[in-house]
Design goal:
- The complex is a heterodimer.
- Chain A contains 2 helices and no strands.
- By secondary structure, chain A is an all-alpha fold.
- Chain A is elongated, with a radius of gyration of 20 Å.
- By secondary structure, chain B is mainly α.
- Helices cover about 70% and strands about 0% of the residues of chain B.
- Chain B is built from 21 helices and 2 strands.
- The longest helix of chain B has about 35 residues.
- The chains are: A mainly alpha, B mainly alpha.
- At the A-B interface, helix 1 and helix 2 of A face helix 10, helix 13, helix 17 and helix 21 of B.
């Protein structure tokens, strides 16, 4: 069942390109921004406790 | 035209053969095997030495001095007997595991015999003084030079032996297939490692607390900093569909095989997609394992815990990450020993493992979140419901074993401080098995890694995303954040 033609897969992806949806953009940049904010917060906490 | 080859990871097998799903998964088996060894070792607290007969290997200049039983109580046992007894003990336990997993017991026993024999031979070779001895030990061993790789160089030799078999002797690899279970081996080792790290935490409570706090940051880094960027790059610049981009981003960012499969399932990708990504993850994890610990020794010897966190954050798959931590631990301690600083063993490995374990914990939550977003916002289908129970289903259960052994050791040590020396001796015994499981993990990872797949037609585009994101982004961001959080934090130094 795992014998899938890889080149066909890639060709299909090229022809049926799925543009990034707004919800995907929100997911990408929302999580990234949250991650940066949380990291800065943890860094401050970590320095304060050190 | 190239076809997608089958990937032989145990996780992958679980996905492909839904009908044959065993009643007990590898995670739970790892918990029970690890706890079994842990409990047997704790018999020392009650004055009974149940595991002292197991074989250990010291750094040797003459082969006859290499192998000895673990404790002096069994000093009269011949090393050969001790070695065979260790093999039979492990075979018996793992046959029960193989039975529970629905494996072919005869083939498992045959394969395991070869895996154990070759792995242990690599350990033996890696303990040769000219390879293993650190500079401070050379005078005692009466040798003028050595590679200073410590006896954990046996891990690297086992990996190379496995790679040779996996890539040049496919028939042998096929014969061993039933016993090539790196995830079972490494997870069992991690459960045992919990107790060993519990001892370290008992001795350095403040440092241990600080490491756990910093471990939490690893979760943020993997899920919120790595994942979105890798997903964006694979979608926007490489044109991958969502079905491919999600497992790919998870495989590269979080924890290789497990994350690719869990998130692939969450968005209802065809099983072949995460499996394909998994094969890539395994191959690249081996490359990282061969390169990053040596880079860390060269550039980060003065910042051992930065190097440790880096391994946990940058190297994918549990086996390769923890294995990289073990090699980095030995390499950096060897380099420090050459300049007269003797760090306590296990701290670098402990940080790498803690970081990796923290990342693993959230795979289920992340898969759940993606499943919810996909079913409600991206691919809405009638009747789609995401169950909270799936978080538990996807939770890596072996972590419970790791936490249990860690907490038991910590709790007993805090409650009865007079028992700490005995707990330490117990964990030293259990640690013998941890080392053997590590060895077999390295060997098995090598056997599973088929580098020829990388050259297959059509595979290059997938590999290109991996190379770009891993070597152009993840490794450097991982290093930067590890530096921010662990800069200046050093493992305890052995006094005297």
């Amino acid at each position: 069942m795992t014998d899938v033609p890889m080149l066909e897969e890639l060709e299909r992806m090229k022809q049926e390109y799925e543009p990034l949806l707004p919800v995907e953009r929100q997911l990408i940049w929302g999580t990234f921004a949250t991650g940066v904010v949380l990291l800065v917060l943890f860094l401050l906490i970590s320095r304060a406790l050190a | 035209m190239a076809s997608l080859p089958e990937v032989e990871t145990p996780r992958a097998r679980e996905v492909v053969t839904e009908k044959k799903r065993p009643a007990v998964g590898e995670d739970w088996l790892a918990v029970w095997i690890g706890l079994f060894v842990f409990i047997l070792s704790l018999a020392l607290l009650f004055g009974t030495d149940l595991l002292g007969w197991t074989i250990t290997t010291s750094v040797w200049t003459h082969p006859s001095h290499a192998l000895v039983p673990a404790t002096k109580v069994y000093a009269k046992l011949s090393p050969g007997f001790s070695l065979v007894a260790t093999y039979l003990f492990l075979l018996a336990i793992l046959l029960v595991a193989a039975k529970a997993l629905g494996g072919n017991l005869k083939r498992f026993a045959q394969g395991f015999t070869v895996v154990f024999a070759l792995s242990y031979a690599c350990w033996f070779l890696g303990s040769w003084a000219y390879i293993a001895a650190t500079p401070d030990k050379r005078a005692g061993l009466k040798i003028g030079w050595s590679l200073s790789l410590t006896n954990e160089s046996g891990f690297i030799i086992a990996l190379i032996a496995g790679l040779l078999i996996g890539n040049f002797f496919p028939r042998v690899a096929g014969f061993l297939k039933e016993a090539i279970r790196p995830e079972l081996y490494i997870k069992t080792a991690i459960v045992i490692l919990g107790g060993f790290l519990g001892i370290a935490a008992l001795e350095q409570r403040q440092l241990a607390t600080s490491i756990i706090l910093r471990g939490i940051c690893a979760i943020i880094e993997a899920y919120l900093i790595y994942w979105p960027i890798v997903y964006f790059v694979s979608r926007r610049y490489f044109g991958f569909s969502r079905e491919w981009a999600v497992p790919l981003a998870s495989g590269i960012s979080i924890c290789g095989v497990a994350a690719a499969i869990a998130t692939g399932g969450a968005i209802r990708a065809r099983p072949v997609v995460p499996i394909m990504v998994s094969s890539l993850v395994v191959v690249f994890a081996v490359i990282e394992l061969m390169v990053l610990p040596f880079a860390a020794q060269h550039y980060l010897a003065g910042q051992p815990l930065v190097a440790a966190a880096w391994m946990g954050l940058a190297v994918k798959t549990d086996g390769a990450a923890v294995a990289s931590g073990a090699i980095t631990d030995s390499l950096i301690r060897a380099k420090a020993a050459a300049s007269g600083i003797v760090f306590q063993p296990g701290w670098i490995l402990g940080v790498s493992t803690t970081v990796k374990v923290f990342i693993d914990i959230f795979i289920g939550v992340w898969a759940f979140l993606l499943a919810w977003i996909w079913s409600t916002k991206i691919e809405r289908r009638e009747g789609d419901r995401v169950r909270v129970a799936e978080v538990w289903q996807r939770f890596p259960k072996f972590i419970l074993g790791y936490v249990a052994t860690f907490l038991i050791v910590l709790a007993v040590g805090v409650a009865i401080p007079s028992l700490v020396p005995k707990i330490k001796a117990s964990m030293a015994q259990a640690n013998v098995f941890r080392a053997i499981f590590f060895l077999m993990t390295f060997f098995a990872i090598g056997v599973m890694s088929n580098f020829r797949r990388l050259w297959q037609e059509g595979f290059a585009k997938l590999a290109a995303v991996y190379v770009l994101c891993l070597f152009g982004y993840i490794i450097w961001v991982g290093l930067f954040i590890s530096w921010l959080f662990f800069h200046g934090v050093l493992p305890p130094v052995v006094k005297g």
